[in-house]
Amino acid sequence: MDDIDIASHYNLPSADPEEWPAALDDEDQPVDETLHKRSSSRRYIALERNNSSTRSLNLGSTKSNNGREHLVQKDEPDPLGSRDTVLNILQKRGLSGEVDSRLKNRFMLSSTSFSPALFLSQIHSTASIHSLLDGLNYLSHSIDQKSASLKVLVEANFERFVRAKATIDSVYTEMRNQGTQPDSVPYYRRSAGHFRSHSGNVRSISPADASTAPPKKNALTKESEYGMNGIRVPLMEASVKAEEVWGPALGGREKEQMLKSVVDSMEKNRVIYEIGGQLSRSIKQRDYESAFEQYTKARALAKDARNIADTATTSGRPLTDEETHTILSMGRMWMDVDQQVQSFKRDLWRRLTDVPTTSTTVTASGMVEEHMELISALLELGVEDNPIWVWLLSRYDFLKTKIASFCDRCKVEIEILRRRLAIGEKPTPQTVASYLRSAPLDGPAEVPERLDTDQVIELWECVHTYLIRLLSSQGGLLGEVLDYWEVAESFINGTKQKLLPAGFEGESRKHHQLSPDRVAGLQNGVVELVTMIRESVLALFADSPVEDAALLSSPVSPPSPNSPVSRGITPTESRFKLDPKNIPVPAPKSGEPWEDYVFWPPFANCLSGVHYISKFLVIIGTAASEMGSLRPVSSSDSSHDHLKALVSVARERAVRVVCAVWSKDAEHCKMLEDWTRDPEQRDLTKMPGLFVAFESAILGGLQKILYISEAMAKSDTVDVVTQPPAKMLQTVRSHFVSSVYKALSGLVENAERPSGPEAESEWVLVGPAAAMNGDDAASSIIAVDAVDAKSRVSSTASFRDTSMSLMNMQSVRILLTLSNIKVLQADLLPQLVTSFETSFFVKLSEEAKTIRDVLDQIDDRLFQSYIKPILSTLNKEIFNGVTAPNWVPSTSRPEQVRPYVYNTMLSLVLVHTEISTTIPSSSHSTTNRTSPTAPSPLLNTVLSHLLLQVSSSLLAAFSSRPTYSLAGLMQATLDTELIAQTMSQYSTDEASNVQSQIYVELDRRTTNEARTRLQAELGEMRGILKRLRERTKGEFACFKKPRSGTGAQAA
Q1: Do residues 275 and 263 lie in contact, with contact meaning Cβ atoms separated by under 8 Å?
Q2: Alpha carbon distance 882, 972 (integer Å)
Q3: How far is CA 784 from CA 777, 787, 808, in A?
């Protein structure tokens, strides 16, 4: 027998107690002693034995969930006699010790739910028949031992059982007859006899006696509801009070039990219940990979639940509780997941239809295109519509709307700016000339700071920005079309689909391939977008300005926040506020060349025009080539021809208006003359350099416009830029020659302009002369770079009044103009002609010859304009001096020349001074303007011509006198020789012949005696001439020929 059985048999608290429990000794007390001590002890002690603090303990017992103790042990030895316990055997067979208590009790012999069949099949599944027989013998022996122990236990406690039975009967009788007087009090006598003898000593109450007195309300009768009638109301009140006091506590315990069962169930199905929360968190964090994983897991679990239901339906069996619970849990989970995923899909669709082609996003795997991420997400989730096609279609609609809105808006902005300019004040020629001076002097590489007025530049920039944002492949609308087709073509070819998922069980693979109809639709859509862009640009260059204000106000509507125009893409941005009710009216036509051109700002000069137009055509040519490189466009002959026509029409219209404005601006080139010296060539004004810079800038810009070389260099895909036609080249050629003619005519006009105050008021002097007013504007050429001869009059006031008329502004202008023409004829215009021939690949042989002839005519005309007043004065001076009555000397040997000779020479000195100071040598230092190292070619030409004309005037004057005496011959000889010897540096053969003719005429008008005597006086006359030259060498030193290697000082 085991220790546990021994302790249980003797009601011991443990197998090894230290002392005998005192409660067990009370059983040996006699009954009389018990009755004697009834007053001091409780009456129903026998009923309360189990509540004693020393009750017997079942060491192997357990408690159920309600806290009540039962006799099922946690573990027990094998009843068939093996060495291990039942729980150990279960653990060895792989059944955990933490299995359900109900299942465990079926293996415990002490449990009422013990299952012999399950016990043998699991605990002794491998036992042999012999071992089972031995176990049966062991079990029978154990039962016999237990039966003997139980018999001894009953015999030992028989008296105790009798007393308990008697007490129970007495209590029952008393409670049943409560309220009646019994005939006698029951008497109990302790006896060791049988139970029947003890019960016979008890006198029971007869029914007749019981009926003599009515029972009280607490009697255990039917009428008193077995004692409940009297205590029902107090019980109800107590129950209500107990419910108020203990209800929350007891209810909390029940709730605890319920929640515990729920927690156990949720813990068992934790994965199912966590899917919804994890999915929501992944969607909020845009962790698509995690969201897809959770959604796939949910779909797999939902599919398993459907399979369970389908299997039960197919087999015709009802669902088990566990299966029902699983299906309900799956259903509840799937409803939540499906609701979240549907909302997630709607958000993905919304974002997909608005995402740009080039937008990227950062993911765990790096940078990816946003539309690919969204398409992949929709395919992974599974959708009915093809997200690839939906996105491509939405991008096409977006681009189409964006292009139309943008072009309409920009057309209105350009026309409004154009009208504002047209109705404004026309710039004066001086204002135009001030901007023509901004042409780069160092070639086209230098960018001018200001080419035109701010309003004109604003319109140029508006058109430029419009073309950039429409045609640029980097950030423009055309770039978006190119990106769109690139992505569409990758979807058509299937290269993009390699990166796309197939979805749950491959359900989205059907969306990977685009149908032929959709491919054709994409190609036609790209052609349509290109056509919209092409027609918008063509309308800008080919159409005339809009006259009807209604056509302008119709597209000017407030854009919505999501419209393409509202995203700051228009050229003038938000600072340009369009008011449909306040659109400027078109200006009346006045015959200006720009009136039929939308893209040309009113009153813009050709310098700003070629600068911006060349940029425009580079943009257009490059964009046309890029549009032509698109496969849907290149495969269509008509589309390719339309792109060529776009470039040709834009170029033809641009050249036409540039040439017209060029011809008009050439008339203002005369205003480039501000009569200030060139800083490098002091014998010139700035006008030749400015004119050549202006013409070079125009030619350079026209070369870019005609050939669009930069566009051809940028694009090597499709050739849509054709060579300029011969007619266009002829137009440029004729306008080039015409502009040169007009500029040269302006030179003559400037030089021959009257020098009165009314003429001076027309000029705006730029540079050092701009800060001067009135007569100060013509300050000395020695002091400043501004050239004017008025002050020269005051510097020579000591001379006779007749010489003052030679020193005026007009003569200075003519001299400078002659010097400018010499440089133009020799260097600058040949360079322009060569530049034109190189730029446009044509020969200007006839035009160059014509230009040279015109320059020769202008040069001769201005030379005569300068010489004519001087000659008139000299002729009058010489003729009056020779024909004067006192010309013939009163002495027989004259020793002085006549005053007219000095006046004539002084006039020549003034001419020399005027020319040498107005047109100094180009190698002359700027700090010493009055000491030229080499005479100007114009100075030699003028003085040589004047010497010839003076000689001719002397011949005519001497020929007017009929006869000459010896003194007259000597006087005529002195006058002629002093002029001839002093001006010998400028003598020519023709002048020498005229001087010889003078002596012939003198010889004709004298006698032989006078001739003979003259020969005798020649030696003396040479001495007189020498003395005269010595006395006047200071006054006439400017005519002395400088020595080699040294410079002569001027007078």
Answers
A1: no
A2: 9
A3: 10, 8, 17
Q: What is the DSSP letter of 441?
A: T
- CA neighbor of 824 nearest in space, from 687, 922, 924, 919: 687
| Structure tokens given for 447 | 């960018």
Residue 183 three-state SS: coil
Number of other CB atoms surrounding residue 724 within 10 Å: 22
Tokens representing 804 are: 């003052």
H helices of 316-386, in order, are 321-354, 370-381
Pairwise CA distance, residues 994 & 746, whole Å = 38
Measured in residues, the chain has a length of 1051
Is the CA virtual torsion 703, 706, 708, 712 positive or negative?
A: negative
Q: Is the pTM of this model over 0.90?
A: no
Domain positions in the chain are 161-230, 270-384, 394-584+594-748, 883-1051
Question: What Rg do the C-alpha atoms of the chain give, in angstroms?
Answer: 66
What is the phi/psi pair of residue 63, to 5°? -115, 140
Nearest CA to 496 among 381, 391, 376, 393? 376
CB 461 within 8 A of CB 571: yes
Find out whether 1037 and 991 touch, Cβ atoms under 8 Å: no
User: Residue 48: is it exposed, middle or buried by C-beta count within 10 angstroms (0-12/13-18/19+)?
Assistant: exposed
The beta strand positions in 855-912, using DSSP E, are: none
Q: Could you give the CA distance from residue 207 to residue 679 in angstroms, rounded to a whole number?
A: 158
pLDDT in tens, 865-913: 889 999 999 999 999 999 998 898 888 888 888 999 999 999 999 999 8
Question: How many of the other CB atoms lie within 10 Å of CB of 604?
Answer: 26
Q: Cα separation of 991 and 952, whole Å? A: 8
Number of neighbours of residue 274 by Cβ within 10 angstroms:
14
Residue 244 has a CB neighbour count (10 Å cut-off) of 9
| Residue 366 backbone dihedrals phi, psi, to 5 degrees | 120, -165
Could you give the count of Cα atoms lying within 13 Å of 221 in the half-sphere of its Cβ? Answer: 15
Q: Is the pLDDT of residue 117 over 90?
A: no
With bands split at pLDDT 50, 70 and 90, how would you rate the model's confidence at 216?
low
Q: Are 782 and 928 in contact (CB under 8 A)?
A: no
Q: Could you tell me the maximum CA-CA distance found in the chain, to the nearest angstrom?
A: 224
> In the block, which residue shows the tokens 């001839």?
980
Separation between Cα atoms, residue 428 and residue 436, nearest integer Å: 13
Which DSSP letter does residue 257 get? Answer: H
The whole-angstrom separation of Cα 108 and Cα 183 is: 54
Alpha-carbon span 547 to 544, nearest angstrom: 9
